[in-house]
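Changelog-adjacent note: as of this version, every example in the card shows the full chain rather than a window. The one below runs 314 residues end to end.
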Amino acid sequence: MDQIKIIMVTDQSILQSELIHRLESAEIKFISIVSSFDKAIESCLTFTPDLLIIDTDINGFADCMESIKKLKIICNIPCLFIYNELTEDLLKEIFQIGTYGFLNKPIIFDRFLLSIRHAMYLWNREKRLKDIINTLPDIVYEIDEEGTISFVSENVYRIFGYRKDELKSVQDVFKLFIPEDQKRAADNYLKTASGLPGKEVEYTVVTKNGNNIPISIIANPIIEGNICKGTRGVIRDISERKNEQRKLFESEERYRTLVENINDVHAILDIKGFITYVSPSVERLSGYTPAEIIGKNFSGFVYPEDIPDVLDRF
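Full-length structure tokens:
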């Protein structure tokens, strides 16, 4: 097993030398023990830790949530919190920041070792899943119950032009849509957040540099127990699909213009002989308008004695 390198943030003497020695024999090394989050940031920039352990009893912990968020962004490693007791409000804030485990004091070797290894196991498993997600050409995302982006895959930069941290700081995600799509996107989000499974819906969004691009979104609710905790979905850039549809439409329009401006009558019939298209020149030759012919069977416009021959050709 590779050595696990740890930075601990605490202003108390909670690790005895004997405990540190036993942990080192288990391939766990404390490369820095610091008493403030500023010093922890310095240590993260100096060393390359694998795990961050934070003592919630450190002086002023409740006022340090922004520093902890900054520390997590800089380190990009899992956090393990040790505590004597925690209020519900602090616990909620810690969960919002992200934790890979809690350990109650006093520190006991076996429990401490298990907590460290479990935190690393969760982190490595999550990292493998993120690596898989980031190989996909689409954007995978999660939006929490507050409507805030809680996760987004790396491809968000390629499609939207935003870095992940920039997009996560967006207060109103629906402002990313063009104005005429914002209400529809918000309404569809509320339907999904109410627990209804989603279906593919097309929108137009505005990239960071101001360009409009067409996308499709498939979203589903995140259900925990019987409660919806947000939505999870896939965003796909459909620019290529739209370009192909536009080329096909232009090609059909050119063909239609050509057919509608020649003297001969051109018609399209389905397999049962019903007319699905006829060129406008039919009116000059037959007196019938296209609207009077389309939808009817061709046999109604052929002399009875000619029908067998026409059927042979058909």
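Structural remarks: The domain at 139-240 is CATH 3.30.450.20 (Beta-Lactamase).
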